[in-house]
Amino acid sequence: MSEAVGALDALGQLLANGVLAWGLAACGVAQLSKLVIELVLHRRWRPAVLVETGGMPSSHSALMTGTAAGLGWELGFADPLFALAAVLCFVVLYDASGVRRAAGLTAQRVNGLPDGLWDTQPTTDQTSAEPVLRPLKENLGHTRAEVLVGSLMGPLVALPGLALLGSPWQIALHAGWLPLG
Predict the structure, then answer these.
(1) Taking the model in full, what pTM does it have?
(2) Would you state the pLDDT for residue 178?
């Protein structure tokens, strides 16, 4: 019985964490906007963009900046935990537009190499067949503009959500969805 109570308590704590909820909401809004951009600019319905990395805007950037801004809002921007969140945010943003972008560009060049450059068929002396090489994923990182838009989107979603609506627990209480007072 105590395990069930502990699980319900943990769920209640998660629902009371507005910073986490609004950071994730910012990430979700960024991912959904990729679908809208795909529809408007490319005139095609491709829901696969909802689970792909890369593209406009950066949902990782929205998640990190929204969460960091939410921490600053809740704890104060002078709090050391906000400083830690901000530093981690900078690392993720730099990584998205630097290392991950470079890896994607490298994959693009490797995929552009002529077919048959590497032998993917087993020879007669090999006992186990090697897998056939598939193209590498090219859309890994983001341009600086994609990171910038995502990093602006995070606080624009998270801060009004926290300030005006609160945590999911508070929203549910105010809406009368929970039998608690």
Answers:
(1) 0.76
(2) 75
Delimit the domains of the chain by residue range: 2-113+135-175
Nearest to 95 by CA among 23, 52, 147: 147
Nearest-angstrom CA–CA distance, 131 and 115? 15
Compute the distance between CA of residue 157 and CA of residue 138 in angstroms, rounded to an integer: 29
Burial (0-12, 13-18, 19+ Cβ within 10 Å), 128: exposed
Prior bond to 57 cis, omega within 30? yes
pLDDT, the chain, mean: 83
Kind and range of the H or E element at 10? helix 2-15
Q: In whole angstroms, how far apart are CA 132 and each of 75, 85, 86, 136?
A: 52, 42, 43, 12
Q: Kindly report, residue by residue over 116-147, the tens digit of the pLDDT.
A: 666 555 555 555 555 566 776 666 677 888 88
